[in-house]
Amino acid sequence: GAAPDDALLEAAYRGHTDIVLFLLSKGVDPDRALPYAAKGGHVEIVKILLEQPTINVNAKDDYGRTALNRAVSNGHDECAELIRAAGGR
Predict the structure, then answer these.
(1) What is the sign, positive or negative, of the torsion defined by CA atoms of 29, 23, 13, 42?
(2) Contact of 29 with 53, CB cutoff 8 Å
(3) Which of 18, 20, 39, 76 could form a disulfide with 70 if both were Cys (CB 3.0 to 4.6 A apart)?
(4) How far apart are the C-alpha atoms of 10 and 4, rounded to whole Å?
(5) pLDDT digits (tens, 9 = 90+) for 25-60
(6) What is the CB-side half-sphere exposure of residue 65 using CA atoms within 13 A?
């Protein structure tokens, strides 16, 4: 089956907040999920991920793009603002 972090990426991209919260509660690393949540434009999930104490706001996805880059290039302004406020570049 898929690794837990892959499940988190999928849930973050598709906007499944409950699954994201569940996987984070199990200790799945939030870093790689942030660009996927930003790409999907899911404000609530971006907020949840940014609240994780270990989050690296500038972590890159599998294509070398940051969450801010994904939010901006997909026109998700509110996500981009949240990420910028958290130190994203």
Answers:
(1) negative
(2) no
(3) 39
(4) 10
(5) 999 999 999 999 999 999 999 999 999 999 999 999
(6) 16
Element (H, E) at 61: none
CB atoms within 10 A of CB 87: 11
Handedness of CA 39, 82, 69, 67 (dihedral sign): negative
Q: What is the DSSP letter of 29?
A: -
Residue 1 predicted with pLDDT over 70: no
Count of CB atoms within 10 A of residue 6's CB? 13
Q: Give the pair of three-digit tokens for residue 6.
A: 């892959």
Report residue 41: phi and psi, to 5°: 75, 30
Give the tokens for residue 2. 């898929």
Report how far apart the first and last C-alpha atoms of the chain are (Å, whole number).
34
